[in-house]
Specification:
The protein has helices spanning 16-33, 60-72, 74-85; strands spanning 3-11, 36-41, 50-57, 89-97. The protein has 114 residues and is of the alpha+beta class.
Length: 114
């Protein structure tokens, strides 16, 4: 994957479980429509109204094709309609980033023996 769409959501903190269900519904929808789902992330500590999603693509053209398939997908449309009706997402921002070669997925080193 060459680009990752980073989506920052402003969510209603009192509807955290609803947003979690929305994200869980997308586990099958996003790959079916052509996105590589890296993950959804809910607030844990600190700010309680910001959530994130990372979805990777081969190119911006792949992303555009994904968006068209997502809009045409009945389950995707239903999930979006549910999130809209319940006002789970108050605002969202999209940014596209690329990984710096050799820096992604580096596991923590085991603690040094003392």
């Amino acid at each position: 994957m060459t680009i990752t769409c980073v989506i920052r959501y402003e969510i209603d903190p009192f509807q955290r479980d609803g947003f979690k269900k929305h994200a869980e519904n997308l586990v099958s929808i996003i790959p079916r429509c052509g996105g590589h789902l890296v993950g959804y992330f809910l607030p844990h500590e600190g700010t309680n109204d910001v959530a994130w999603a990372l979805i990777a693509f081969d190119s911006l053209a792949s992303y555009e094709a994904y968006r068209a398939r997502l809009k045409a997908d009945p389950e995707g449309r239903g999930n979006f309609a549910m999130a809209t009706a319940k006002r789970l997402i108050l605002r969202e921002e999209r940014n596209f980033v690329e990984v710096v070669d050799g820096t992604f997925g580096i596991a923590a080193a085991p603690p040094a023996e003392r």
